């Protein structure tokens, strides 16, 4: 994205007045080697620094709102929750084994 693209994106999508945009390219190193002793270079990427207009603050929008935890009886979510509870109960260690792992037979 160019500086103009970044500025237009923030103003249109987030309704944030942008004062200035600075960009730079972050060059990555190629010091790492793979199993064939070949140099491996991570890809370069672009970094943008945004300065808002004076007296402006930015608040990230809530992308994933919290759902209510009350489940309807017989719903798929309720059955999945019950299944997960049963699996967690089943995977608990047996207290009679005294800390001995399951794979070690007595």
UniProtKB/TrEMBL annotation:
GO terms for cellular component: ribosome. Keywords: Ribonucleoprotein, Ribosomal protein. Residues 79-106 are annotated as: Disordered. Residues 87-99 have a biased composition (Basic and acidic residues). Belongs to the universal ribosomal protein uL23 family. This is Large ribosomal subunit protein uL23m. It comes from Huso huso (Beluga). The lineage of its organism: Eukaryota, Metazoa, Chordata, Craniata, Vertebrata.
């Amino acid at each position: 994205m160019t500086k103009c693209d970044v500025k237009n994106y923030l103003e249109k999508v987030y309704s944030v007045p942008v004062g200035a945009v600075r960009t730079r390219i972050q060059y990555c190193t190629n010091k790492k080697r793979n199993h064939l002793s070949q140099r491996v270079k991570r890809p370069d990427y672009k970094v943008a620094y945004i300065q808002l207009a004076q007296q402006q603050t930015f608040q990230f929008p809530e992308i994933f709102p919290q759902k209510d935890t009350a489940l309807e009886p017989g719903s798929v979510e309720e059955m999945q929750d019950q299944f997960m509870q049963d699996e967690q109960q089943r995977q608990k260690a047996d207290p009679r084994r005294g800390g001995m792992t399951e794979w070690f037979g007595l």
